[in-house]
Structure formats: C-alpha cells, structure tokens
Write a structure and sequence with these properties.
By secondary structure, the chain is of the alpha/beta class. It has three domains: about 5-100 and about 210-260, Adenylosuccinate Synthetase, subunit A, domain 1 (Adenylosuccinate Synthetase, Chain A, domain 1), CATH 3.40.440; about 105-200, Orthogonal Bundle (Adenylosuccinate Synthetase, subunit A, domain 2); about 265-425, Adenylosuccinate Synthetase, Chain A, domain 3 (Alpha-Beta Complex), CATH 3.90.170. It is about 30% helix and about 20% strand. It has helices at about 15-25, 75-90, 110-120, 135-145, 155-175, 185-200, 205-215, 250-255, 285-295, 315-325, 360-365, 395-405; strands at about 5-10, 30, 40-45, 50, 65-70, 75, 100, 105, 200-205, 220, 260-270, 270-275, 305-310, 310, 325-330, 340-350, 355, 370-375, 410-415, 420-425. A ten-stranded mixed sheet has the order 9-7-5-2-10-1-11-15-19-20, sandwiched between helices. It is globular. Bound molecules: inosinic acid (IMP). The site of inosinic acid has 21 residues, from α4. Inosinic acid binds near residues 12, 134, 135, 225 and 240.
C-alpha cells in the first residue's frame, strides 16, 4: 500500500491535473484536500478536453472513488454543473463515485460579492483573485460563522446561518465596499433547491478514507494551486487562502500523517503566475511570449493570460523542503523546444550576498536579483519520447540540472498534453 500526494511547487498551473490523471490509473481513491473552484485542472483524454474545478480529475476513470475533503470551500452551483456536464458527456456521477465531506465549507453569493467588490476597491493594489469567493469563504470558516455542507441537509440551521451572515455581509458590502446588498429569500430558495441534489453525496470523508486505508486501498491526494500561493508559506499577501503544501492533505482530508507515503512535486519546466505578486524570473520579452504561446498559458479558470518566465529553482527548493518532496514530475518540457539558450535561476542575490531561500519580506524580495545558470537549448521534437534515453542530450541535461540542484529525483517527465505523452521513470505508487 502506498498513498501518494501530488502538490504544485510553483504558483499553480504546473500541470497537476495531467499527473493526477496518470497516477489515478493505480489508485482506488482520489481526494482533494484544499482550495475550491479557483483551481482548474485541464485534461486531454483521447483528444477530448475536460476542465474540472472541484471534482477530482480521477473522475474520468471507471471504478475509482473521488472525494472532496473537509479542507475545501465548495460552490454548490459549480459542483452541480460539473456533475451535469459529466452526465452530458456520458458519465453518470453517483454517491458511489463521488463523496463530499459534510465538513467542507460552502461558498455563498455574499462571498463572491465581497471578493469582487474588495478587489475593485483595492484598484491597482488588488491581489488578482479568481473572484470565486474563496478568501471570504475561508474567512467565515476561521471566524466560525461559515455554512458547512452538513448544513445543507438541515434547512433550519441553513436559514439561521444565512440570515445572521447576510446581516453582517450586507452592512460590509454597502457601508464599506460601496456594493449592492443581497436578498435573503432568493439565496435560501436557490441553496435549498441545490441542497436537494447534493445531499446524497454528503458524507464523512475522513471515515470513508479510514475504511479505505484499512482495506489496503491506494489513495491519491490531489493538491490544488501551488506552494508559493500557500497562505502561510507563499508570497503573502499575493496568495490564496488555503495551504497547498503536502501536510495540508492530513488536515484537509481527515487522515493522519503516517498515511502519506510519497509526495510528488509538480514542476513546470519554466515558471508561470496568474494574478499579481512578485515573480523574479518573469520574462517580459519575446522569449516570454514564445513560452506563453507554445505553452498555451491561459488560466483554466479565468482565461487570463499567464505571466511566464524562466524556471526558478529557489522556488522549487523551498517547495521541496515545505512538502518533503520524494520525487518531481516535470511538465511541459516540450514547450521549451526551439529556444537557443535556457536559463535556470539557482539562487538570489540580496545586498551583494547570495541567498538560497525566498525571503518572507516582499520589500527584501523586491531587492533580490536572480542568479542564473545558462544552458544550451535543444531543437529536436521531444513530444514522442517515451523513455528518458529518447530525450536529446541537452533536454536530458536540463532535467539532470533540476535533479542535482533540488536534490530530488525526477519520477515523471511530461512532453505533451495527452496521457500518452509521458516518460514514466518511476511510478510513485
Ligand atoms: P483566490 O484563490 O481566488 O483568492 O486568488 C488568490 C491568488 O491565487 C490569485 O493570484 C490567483 O490568481 C491565484 N490562484 C488561485 N487559484 C489558482 C490556481 O489554481 N492556479 C493558479 N493561480 C491560482
């Protein structure tokens, strides 16, 4: 038995969806443990594209159990739409294939309204959130006023909570954020109607995972976003409101740390970021455009153009430490094909000194300059490589450099969007 966690090592969008999809082949259960529909996992299966925001990517396989852990904030409208879209695509989703934790928090219309109004009020200082109400929903969770999935099956509790919350939220929306107030009745009617469809999926996910563990099932923990968007360890305040590090899989799914056996860190062969915030290796030139176009770097959730830059191994090394990475999966290596020279950031210079970890202070970070190692690029098409020795020497040297500097072995290399465009060096399961 071997339970595996997949986490992003950069600022999200590393291609976790594809790796999770691959690893699901050997898993019995796939569980998400943090975030919400700010995530967007794009999968290409037999040439058909699927984008999931809430449901674990493993749902496309037959006979796998997908679970939404207590650590998530769930927009019921989005979840129901994903269930419906899958039905239209020919896949019926039932409580046998999907569970939603009764302790997951529910995104309400006032969370979205506050998220959007707050970003507008911040103007040029905005975080660039996805506008899905993620932060405000987690705020209510911590404030102990949130609506949980279990409340959907108790109409009286739901009504009392929404009523109390709305009073406070409307005050905040109108008096502070200069936004429109929301009405109780339409919210209640809509949520009660959605509750009827969601209640069959709501269960104790921690208990279900425990039963799986006792029955020697293999569990895959699917992280969303990336380590540098972590509320504690990321480039605060330009972060999301959850913990995308591997340790969060325990609290966010309801299992103990001894149940995690392998942690795979997903590293895109270059760096991207959506939204605002520091990005030392950003390329605002034609090389950045080349990577953006070849990598089709547009957000799966908001459609925003992603900022692109060189691979920053300071960022990846931080992630290796924070999540205790056992192996790396390098994605989108094929995107770099055709560039004459490649740069890898191997350290930062701050006030004349070399540092190897990202400082917490944004002021200090702004003063850092990346220290690059330059290596020659490759021109050969690598998209058909299925074994490491089929990679051209320069592409292999790029991979080896990542391995050497981070000290973490590479288990998977992705050379294209499809399931088959993969070099599996060592299966983490
Ligand atoms: P929020 O999670 O919507 O509050 O957004 C906070 C920050 O995290 C913004 O910079 C978003 O662009 C970023 N973010 C949130 N989810 C993702 C993701 O799945 N991929 C990449 N960036 C994300």
């Amino acid at each position: 038995m071997s339970n595996t966690v997949v986490v992003g090592t950069q600022w999200g969008d590393e291609g976790k969806g594809k790796v999770v999809d691959l690893l699901t082949a050997k898993a019995d259960m796939v569980v998400r443990f943090q975030g919400g529909n700010n995530a967007g996992h794009t999968l290409v299966v037999e040439g058909k594209q699927f984008i999931f925001h809430i449901i674990p990517s493993g749902i496309l396989y037959e006979g796998k159990k997908c679970l939404i852990g207590n650590g998530l904030v769930v927009d019921p409208e989005v979840l129901l739409k994903e269930i419906q879209d899958l039905k239209v695509a020919g896949k019926e989703i039932t409580p046998e294939s999907l569970s939603l934790s009764e302790k997951a928090h529910i995104i309400m219309p006032y969370h979205k309204a506050i998220d959007l109004a707050r970003e507008t009020a911040k103007g040029r200082h905005k975080i660039g959130t996805t506008g899905r109400g993620i932060g405000p929903c987690y705020e209510d969770k911590v404030a102990r006023t949130g609506v949980r999935a279990v409340d959907l099956s108790e109409p009286k509790t739901l009504e009392e909570k929404v009523k109390a919350n709305l009073k406070e939220k409307n005050f905040f929306l109108t008096k502070f954020l200069d936004a429109e107030p929301l009405e109780l009745e339409p919210i209640l009617a809509k949520y009660l109607q959605m509750a009827g469809r969601l209640v069959p999926f709501i269960t104790d996910v921690s208990l279900e995972l425990d039963q799986g563990i006792k029955a020697n099932k293999r569990i895959l923990f699917e992280g969303a976003q990336g380590t540098h968007l972590d509320i504690d360890h990321g480039t605060y305040p330009f972060v999301t409101s959850s913990n995308p590090v591997a340790g969060a899989a325990c609290a966010g799914a309801g299992i103990g740390p001894k149940q995690l056996h392998h942690v795979v860190g997903i590293v895109k062969a270059y760096t991207t970021r959506v939204g605002a915030g520091p990005f030392l290796t950003e390329l605002e030139d034609e090389t950045g455009d080349y990577i953006q176009e070849r990598g089709q770097e547009f957000g799966a959730t908001t459609g925003r153009r992603r900022r692109c830059g060189w691979l920053d191994l300071v960022v990846v090394q931080d992630s290796a430490r924070l999540s205790g990475l056992d192996s790396l999966a390098i994605t989108k290596l094929d995107v770099l094909t055709g560039l004459e020279k490649l740069k890898i950031c191997v350290g930062y210079e701050l006030d004349g000194e070399r540092i190897s970890a990202r400082p917490a202070s944004l002021e200090k970070l702004a003063k850092c300059t990346p220290i690059y190692m330059e290596i020659p690029g490759w021109q050969e098409d690598i998209s058909r490589a299925r074994q490491v020795d089929q990679l051209p020497p320069r592409a292999l040297a790029y991979v080896k450099t990542i391995e050497e500097i981070t000290g973490v072995p590479v288990s998977i290399i992705s050379v294209g969007a499809g399931r088959e465009d993969t070099i599996m060096i060592q299966d983490p399961f």
